[in-house]
Amino acid sequence: MAKAPVERLKKKLSERLALIRGDRSQRQFARDLGVFQQNVNRYENGTTPHTDFLMTLAIKENISMDWLLLGKGRMRRRA
User: Using CA atoms, how far apart are residues 11 and 34, in angstroms rounded to an integer?
Assistant: First the structure.
């Protein structure tokens, strides 16, 4: 895969994280996930999230990994 499409996906990932957070503050969102607020801030500003964070987010917020990472399919996993 070429570098440019990967960079676009990474930029969109930070936008999707902010969308998942919604109206919650970064502090509250971090608290809900059991992570530091500074991590949420860095991830929303373009730092690539750690795998553990992504997995925790997907599980606790019922988020599809395909949607989160690639923007494909539905945001929420089916129950």
Answer: 24
The answer to whether position 75 is within a domain reads: no
pLDDT tens across 15-58, in order?
999 999 999 999 999 999 999 999 999 999 999 999 999 999 99
Half-sphere exposure of 42 (CA within 13 A, CB side): 10
Kindly report the pTM of this predicted structure. Answer: 0.88
Radius of gyration over every alpha carbon of the chain, rounded to an integer in angstroms: 12
In whole angstroms, give the CA distance from residue 5 to residue 24. Answer: 30
Give the number of domains in the chain.
1
Note whether residue 16 is domain-resident: yes
Question: Residue 20 domain-assigned?
Answer: yes
Biggest CA pair distance of the chain: 36
Q: Which residues pair with 76 in a beta bridge?
A: 63
* CATH code where residue 29 lies: 1.10.260.40
